[in-house]
Amino acid sequence: MDTIFLEQVKVQTKLGVPEWERAVPQTVILDIEIGYDFNKACLSDAIEDTIDYGLVVARIRETLAEHSFKLVEALGEHVCQLVLQEFKAQSVKLKVSKPGILPGLKALGIVISRTA
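Structure (tokenized):
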């Protein structure tokens, strides 16, 4: 399986357990690995034969702006299912980082993997 990777994708969403934390959008950072078969795209050199990563980023930003999540885990599952279903990926590995949320901590987050 081949992989498309998108590093340090900054997105805005409402995220946090306390209601006050979800009142205002905050930045989360996504590292995304998308498993896909590139054989056809390698031969055709056509965007139609692969996953358009620009569309993936735009769609993730759109959906996260529209939704609110209490848990980083729920946000991660939402993004993985979106990529698998809407873009027909074979697999997705996602790292979600919530930077600077606790004193003395660079970031916290999760890594989640899903397959079709």
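The first strand starts at residue 2 and ends at 15. The radius of gyration is 15 Å.
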